[in-house]
Design a protein that fits this description.
Order of helices and strands: HHHHHHH
Helix content: over 70%
Oligomer: single chain
Largest sheet: none
Number of strands: 0
Low-confidence stretches: 1-17
Number of helices: 7
Length: about 190
């Protein structure tokens, strides 16, 4: 009698289906959380790397926090005071304000890159396009800096900016490589 009751329970198949659906939903949510967490970690690593790079360069030149002061002045004050960037004194308000924008930008880049890598894992033929997008983004950033941020480049050299970007990209790639060591990219 008990075995007949267990065989006839209509809830079991429904619960198994619901369990399968909720399990699949839970897996997707966990995967999405992992993608965002990976992107945030990569973004923080990239932001910290470039910040340390410029702090080291500025300190060697005897002007710590000079670079974020110049960039903050260009961003928040429209470049007022950058006519003679060598005379610009480090400004704590500009350093903190620019650092927040800098970190947020790198967080967005990290999450976008993490999402793109997730796409490449599902379809390796997209990998080459992602690599080309990265190269285009790097050189586009450098070109835009040279054309539109000319006053900033009076205070910073393009080689310092390019070096910092490449170091940050390397740090972010190391974070991604740790999670995706066998990522295949096909042309």
């Amino acid at each position: 009698m008990v075995t007949d009751f267990l065989r006839v329970r209509p809830e079991e198949p429904v619960m198994a289906t619901e369990s399968g659906v909720s399990s699949s939903l839970a897996e997707r949510q966990a995967s999405a959380t992992g993608v965002y967490a990976e992107g945030i970690l990569a973004g923080l690593m990239g932001a910290a790397t470039i910040a340390v790079w410029f702090l080291a360069l500025d300190s060697i030149k005897g002007r710590p926090f000079y670079t974020p002061s110049v960039l903050g002045t260009a961003l928040f004050r429209g470049g007022a005071g950058l006519e003679h960037p060598q005379a610009l004194a480090p400004n704590f308000e500009m350093v903190v304000s620019f650092t927040w924008v800098h970190v947020l930008a790198f967080l967005l880049i990290g999450v976008a890159a993490s999402r793109l890598l997730e796409l490449v894992e599902q379809n390796p033929s997209f990998g080459f396009g992602v690599v080309l997008l990265f190269v285009f983004f790097e050189f586009g950033f450098l070109l835009a800096s040279m054309v539109f941020a000319e006053p900033v480049l009076r205070g910073l050299t393009w080689s310092e900016v390019l070096g910092g970007n490449l170091l940050a990209a390397t740090a972010m790639a190391a974070v991604f490589w740790r999670r995706h060591p066998r990522l295949a990219i096909q042309p």
